[in-house]
Amino acid sequence: MGTVTTFWSFAVVVGLLTLTPGLDTALILRTAALGRRREAWGVVLGIQTGTLAWGTLSSLGVTALLAASRTAYDAVRLAGAAYLLWMGALMLWNSLRRRHGAVEPDPAEEKPAGPAAGLLSGWRRGALTNVLNPKMGVFYVAVLPQFIPAGAPHLAMGVALTCVHVAEGLIWSSVLVAFAHVLRSWLRRPVAQRVLDRLTGTVVIGFGVKLAIGD
Predict the structure, then answer these.
(1) Residue that wins the pLDDT comparison between 68 and 99
(2) Nearest CA-CA partner of 78 in 204, 203, 211
(3) CA distance 210 to 198
(4) Which one of 25, 80, 126, 197 has the minimum C-beta count within 10 Å?
(5) Distance of CA 187 to CAs 45, 58, 89, 106, 159, Å?
(6) By mean pLDDT, which of 61-75, 104-118, 152-166 is the weakest?
């Protein structure tokens, strides 16, 4: 398989993965819909940082430990599940407080004081969500080696392919942020925000439960 064909084939595979609605989509849309555009881009960059980390570690052979060691996989899986359940529960609690007029922010939902703080807050949320999902590591362990031609430098080629995934993620995320920005007037209404918090919180908790239960 030629290098160009390899990149196109990999782009199709991860492109389908990127377009599939999931936890990342829910987090980006919710953050952007609340009017926190800079924080939403922080979430996007955090998610892609996690993707790049998983791809690099897979190219180095480190994440093969997740596939080989049930203990290592379970440790990351349970940590990720706990984080998602905590985050989802806070979103549901936030929707209840909005219903009763108590809109003062809780520690996880507090709007950062400055632009840099908002970007960092979003980045941290996105990165933790991605890094604490061991299925991303297992995906790269299973898929990435199939697209690295024999004789090619494993690390360099693996990182290059991962960058394709990151690029597609950034493009799709820009569409999601723009979509939320267009609907911002409606989505920033109290009723819409309560509904958004409940939907996103339920989705996040669902992913947390699924991750906790395992395959």
Answers:
(1) 68
(2) 211
(3) 18
(4) 25
(5) 23, 39, 21, 20, 38
(6) 104-118
The candidate with the shortest Cα–Cα distance to 80, out of 17, 136, 13, 10, is: 136
Burial 110-142 (b: 16+ CB within 10 A, else e): eebeeeeebbbbbbebbbbbbbbbbbbbbbbbe
Name 41's Cβ contacts closer than 8 Å, sequence gap at least 6. Answer: 119, 122, 177
pLDDT 10s digits, 11-63: 999 998 898 888 888 889 888 887 778 899 999 999 999 999 999 998 888 87
Distance CA 106, CA 147 (A): 45
The three-point CA angle 40-133-78 to 5° equals 120
Q: Are 166 and 51 in contact (CB under 8 A)?
A: yes
The pTM score is 0.81
157 contacts 163 by C-beta, under 8 angstroms: no
Contact (CB, 8 A) for 106 and 93:
yes
Residue 37 CA to residue 30 CA, distance in Å, equals 10
Token duo for residue 32: 């952007």
Alpha carbon distances (Å) from 124 to 59, 128, 188: 24, 6, 23
pLDDT tens-digit readout, 165-185: 999 999 999 999 988 887 777
The backbone torsions φ and ψ at residue 2, rounded to the nearest 5 degrees and listed phi first, read -70, 165
